[in-house]
Amino acid sequence: MSDSESNSSSAEAAAARWMAARDRGFTPAEQDAYLQWLSEDPTHGAEIARLSRAWDRLEALHQWSPNHSTKPNADLLLPRHRRSRWRRRIVFGSALAATLAVVLSLLSLRDPAPVSDESGVIMHPAPRRLTLEDGSLIELNTSARVEVDFTPSVRAVRLVQGEAHFIVAKNPHRPFVVQVGDYRVRAVGTAFNIALAPEDVSVLVTEGEVQLKETTASLATAPLVPSLRVGQEARLSPTLPAGFEVAELSPAEMEARLAWHSLRLEFTGTPLREVIAEFNRYNRRQLVLADAATGNMVIGGTFRADNVEAFVRLLDLGFDIQARNEGDTLVLSRR
């Protein structure tokens, strides 16, 4: 294998790992590392975008219902404008096959659809995710909508409605600008959250710095907020005395603001055995019951699906259930 082929394979594997981490929700450290990885090589962003397109094609398999066949219809993986045509010259090259294999191996980490069942388990799905051509990521809260208009000189996005979180691939020669209402949020490589409400706009920085300007301001006019740093949230509104106000948020307040990023599980009078079955769907570290009686305990509450450790601590403090660590398994039993 040549050096170029080896580098391509390594970038593909790294991109697949980042996509898996991204879909379950970045930790702050992972977000920093992801931005650093994107900035190291422009091909990294392109690889993320390529894998995302392949993954989107696999989403078409949801249309397959195995009522009359044990194999999916191959036409489902064809582009829309070709699905009605006769299948011809379908050749899967080794690179595409490798990509699909990686994506399929991660398919279980994709966000589920909202579900409510009789057992009292409700899943609040994580945000929809949009990967841009440069590898930047937009996480869209419920009903949020954006419009993307990239040019060679600027990466322009307009937040039309709702709330979105942006993780921007670093490129000092091609700024990333989000238009929201009468304001522009400018960043080169950073991460921030924007919420558009009827009366105001809020911008919360989760990584790096951003600059805020009013759309009507001339290029010679100083920015409305020259530098908004990590942990700072700006509220922008013409009703405010200065047109804006900036607040420093604690880590707990930031976590509360961004709670919509993570898939949440809500339980109402649900047996513990069903609760841990749900947690096990979203975590590599699995929960196991030491005995059937413990599994009959009834649980209620709302939890992050990817924070199994916090759930175990709750069981310890509130239900006197201890967890025995056995590698990737936590065995639960009454004290």
TrEMBL record:
Residues annotated as domain FecR protein: 128-211
Ranges that cross the membrane: 90-109
Entry coiled-coil feature ranges: none
Key words, A-Z: Membrane, Transmembrane, Transmembrane helix
Protein name per UniProt: FecR domain-containing protein
Provenance organism: Actomonas aquatica
Species classification: Bacteria, Pseudomonadati, Verrucomicrobiota, Opitutia, Opitutales
